[in-house]
Amino acid sequence: MPTPPVPPARPPHPSALAEPEHWLASTELLDLDDSKLRLRARSLTQLSKTEREKALAIYGFVKRVPFAKPFKLRLRSPRQVLEAGRGDALDKVGLLLALLRISGIPARMRYMHLPGEMLRGLISHMSITARPVAEVWIGGRWAATDTYIFDAAYMAAARQRLAEEGWDCGYGIHRDGASIWNGADDAFLVGTGVAQDGLVPGGEGLFEDPFAFVNSTLWREAHPALASTVHWNIMVPSMGKVIRELREEAVAPAPPAAGRRAS
Hints:
Layout: H1 14-17, H2 35-45, H3 51-64, H4 78-84, H5 89-102, E1 107-115, E2 128-138, E3 141-145, H6 152-165, E4 169-170, E5 173-174, H7 192-198, E6 206-207, H8 210-214, H9 217-222, H10 229-251
Antiparallel strand pairs: 1-2, 1-6, 2-3, 4-5
Helix pairs in contact: 2-5, 3-5, 4-5, 6-10
């Protein structure tokens, strides 16, 4: 959800990008001193013996947060997302980054372009869209994933919809994409091939937090007609309806929808 217009965000200085410690700091949006966030991070990782176990415990918690497209007038802080108990991709990546950094694990965002058809069923008539990919410093390397976005119930129903429609992709996923992250390797909902084509390399594609992400030149170029809060919120009711339908199907699978039409 874009905030009111601000000058395009600049990527961090190249000399800082090579240092994992650079990606441990608070930002205007990510308050790592928030007591509730720190308590949650501690409770999630207290039994973890390794960095990977810590990362997976936090990742699993964020992934279980139900995916939703809420009406909002500005980006939400990780504390607000935690209290809401649901969120969209930008909400969830902010929460993920904050909890990881609080636990001493460097984490950052990388920009990924996606073909619009990846979101068909959720949003119609988009030629290209953007997705925040989380990169986590594990085992001396950056491991990337977008699988934190959708919870298990959404994923199960979305995969069933793809099978019914005969689509390779839609509802934010690809039928050959990953569903979960193992805490060591790259894993993408959209599949490795699409991700490799869409990930923006180098410092230009890296961001500290969701605020910098949505105020970047990359975002504005991908969403020229959706750059305002008003435009995004217009889509909320229709997207929310689809998401609710998917959740209902996950609980009680619906019969094959022969009349369902492609977006």
